[in-house]
């Protein structure tokens, strides 16, 4: 299985470094690797340091941090050879770069097989944008925001409710389907990195579960028959505008091997699925959305109609 990659973009001062610090040190149980442009900007408490080597710092929680050296593949290779392999890799883009170039590099088949792009998170400085609304018309900032699957409106506590509503209105015109408000770069790791939370039941069920991140919930669905791929794609297209992300193991009609399906923001991918337990359902799907956005009966009917 490839290691999931989270790409973090944003203008100077938006809080990218703070967000990376949070991901590296938060007690989420994941071994993360961070690839940053300015190694000195990652200010990690000395008590968390386990050791260091040239261009790389290890943390006691199993996370590591290194600088971007030359091309992306050369930087990622030593991380992917580590034992144990990281549960995820966070890559920081430059303040003055368009994330599209790194996205294209990560979609290269050679890299994709080892390190698959999971999501693009773009941080927006709520205070700066509220004080200078015209900044949202800057071509580079717009490119960064348009690349984001999720926009994190950081420093939301520094602006009024009316200013936040106005910013949400303008940001909602961009392709990202999810806009989160936060302060101090508090990034919800559960929303950004996928987990295998598929319920191994034999029949279709759709329980509603409160998700680990406040304000979100997950809906799990399983099926005992293969899916019609065209009908499944049509159903996901209808649900996509309501979702933060979706993931699952699919048995598609006419295909021998199981598929791993992942969707976040505008990006949906199919790949080879890992081996499943012998008692697992043929199809296991999890949908994540803001609480109240999904109607279980409607989703149940829509997905049941996808069975071959």
Automatic annotation (TrEMBL):
Protein name per its UniProtKB record: GTP-binding protein
InterPro entries: CobW-likC_sf (IPR036627), CobW-like_C (IPR011629), CobW/HypB/UreG_nucleotide-bd (IPR003495), P-loop_NTPase (IPR027417), Zinc-reg_GTPase_activator (IPR051316)
Transmembrane segments: none
Job description of the protein: Zinc chaperone that directly transfers zinc cofactor to target proteins, thereby activating them. Zinc is transferred from the CXCC motif in the GTPase domain to the zinc binding site in target proteins in a process requiring GTP hydrolysis.
Family (UniProt): Belongs to the SIMIBI class G3E GTPase family. ZNG1 subfamily.
SUPFAM superfamilies: Hypothetical protein YjiA, C-terminal domain, P-loop containing nucleoside triphosphate hydrolases
GO MF, any single term: nucleotide binding
PANTHER family (alphabetical): COBW DOMAIN-CONTAINING PROTEIN, COBW-RELATED
CobW C-terminal domain segment(s): 216-307
Coiled coil: none
Pfam hit, one: cobW
Lineage, broadest ranks: Bacteria, Pseudomonadati, Pseudomonadota, Alphaproteobacteria, Acetobacterales
Keywords, comma-separated and alphabetical: Chaperone, Hydrolase, Nucleotide-binding
GO CC annotations, alphabetized: cytoplasm
Catalytic activity, reaction form: GTP + H2O = GDP + phosphate + H(+)
């Amino acid at each position: 299985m490839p290691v999931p990659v989270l790409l973090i973009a944003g203008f100077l001062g938006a809080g990218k470094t703070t967000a990376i610090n949070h991901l590296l040190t938060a007690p989420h149980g994941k071994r993360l690797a961070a690839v940053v442009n300015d190694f000195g900007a990652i200010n990690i408490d000395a008590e968390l340091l386990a050791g260091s080597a040239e261009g790389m710092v290890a943390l006691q929680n199993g996370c590591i941090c290194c600088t971007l050296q030359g091309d992306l593949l050369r930087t990622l290779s030593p991380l992917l050879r580590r034992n144990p392999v990281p549960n995820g890799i966070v890559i920081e883009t430059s303040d003055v770069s368009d994330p599209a170039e790194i996205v294209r590099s990560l979609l290269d088949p050679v890299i994709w097989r080892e390190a698959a792009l999971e999501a693009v998170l773009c941080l927006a400085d709520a205070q700066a944008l509220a004080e200078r609304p015209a900044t949202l018309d800057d071509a580079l900032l717009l490119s960064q925001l348009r690349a984001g699957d999720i926009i994190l409106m950081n420093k939301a506590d520094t602006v009024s409710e009316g200013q936040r509503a106005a910013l949400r209105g303008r940001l909602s015109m961009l392709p990202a389907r999810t806009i989160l408000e936060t302060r101090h770069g508090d990034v919800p790791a559960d929303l950004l990195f996928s987990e295998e939370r598929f319920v191994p039941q034999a029949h279709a069920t759709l329980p509603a579960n409160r998700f680990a991140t406040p304000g979100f919930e997950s809906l799990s669905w399983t099926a005992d028959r293969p899916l019609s791929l065209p009908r499944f794609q049509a159903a996901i297209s209808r649900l996509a505008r309501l979702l933060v992300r979706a993931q699952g193991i699919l048995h598609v009609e006419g295909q021998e091997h199981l598929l791993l399906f992942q969707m976040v923001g505008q990006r949906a991918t199919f790949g080879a699925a890992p081996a499943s337990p012998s008692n697992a359902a043929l199809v296991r799907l999890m949908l994540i959305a803001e609480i109240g956005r999904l109607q279980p009966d409607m989703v149940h009917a829509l997905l049941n109609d996808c069975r071959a």
